[in-house]
Structures are given as C-alpha cells and as structure tokens.
UniProtKB/TrEMBL annotation:
This is NrdI protein. NCBIfam families: PRK02551.1 (NF002714). InterPro entries: Flavoprotein-like_sf, RNR_NrdI. It comes from Lentilactobacillus senioris DSM 24302 = JCM 17472. One of its GO terms (molecular function) is FMN binding.
Length: 155
C-alpha cells in the first residue's frame, strides 16, 4: 500500500508536532500490520521552492488570521500565504484529496477558518480538525479518516 502523503505548513510548531505524531502512529501501525499505510510528510515553508506535485496528498493548515471576524467583517490570511501559493502552483491543487484544519477553539467561528477557506479555494473537502497540537485520540481519528478518504479515491 502506498504511503499517505501529507503536506503541511507549521508556523509555531503545533502542526509539525501533530504531523510527526501522526507519522509515528501510522508507521507503528504499519509495522504491526502492513495493510496499514505509512504517512509521508512534506513541510512547506516560505523558503520552499515550488515543485510540481504528481501524486495525491492531503494538507494540514493552521489558522492565522488578522482583521475582521472572518465571517461577516472580512479577514486577511496571515502567515500561510506561501502554502496557498504552493498549492495553487501549476496543477498542484488537483492532487489535494482533503484538508485538515487546526486552531484554537477559543476563537469560536474563526476555529479552522483558514482550512475551510483552503478547502473552498482548492475544491477539496474539509475532512478533519484538531486543536493546537492535537491529542492521541485526534491522531488515531484523523489517521482513520485519511485511510477512509484514500480508499474512496482508490475505489
């Protein structure tokens, strides 16, 4: 079984921490039973060169916004713009099978707003969310979602 690819951007390390936990969990599951796919990570940052993606992937994006409330009084994406530009590069977006969002629930309606906006912009489903660095339960839940979403596309 091919590894599940996850592209992500991490500003303060929360998304990277979650991605690393997800990869470790997936690899542990794969070691126990090869029917479980591994997770392959690719971090995108302001320093990343644009590349043409040629294989399906999921994305994980944190929420960083400024201005307005993001619902009815506008919003400006902050700090994840290079990730959006990478996804928009050439045909990269067509390989995106789903969006995972993260954020802080204290921000109410803005929780995972960046991920929901990416899902709309790149015509990909918003498939999961986690708060801050996520919990072990989040890792297991999202891994199962990634497997299910991958199977949908392969069938």
């Amino acid at each position: 079984m091919e590894p599940i690819r996850l592209l992500y951007i991490s500003i303060e390390g929360n998304t990277r921490s979650f991605a690393d936990k997800l990869q470790n969990y997936a690899n542990g599951m794969h070691d126990q039973n090869s029917k479980y796919p591994q997770v392959e990570l690719k971090e995108i940052s302001d320093q990343s060169d644009f590349e043409n993606e040629t294989q399906p992937y999921f994305i994980s994006v944190p929420t960083y916004l400024t201005g307005g409330n993001g619902i009815d009084s506008g919003v400006t994406e902050l700090m994840t713009n290079s990730f959006g530009e990478y996804l928009a590069y050439n045909d990269n977006a067509k390989y995106c099978w789903g969006v995972i969002g993260s954020g802080n629930r204290n921000f109410n309606e803005q929780y995972c707003l960046t991920a929901r906006r990416y899902a709309e912009a790149f015509d990909a489903p918003f498939i999961a969310d986690f708060e801050l660095r996520g919990t072990g339960r989040d890792v297991e839940r999202i891994y199962q979602i990634l497997i299910a979403e991958t199977q949908k596309h392969e069938n």
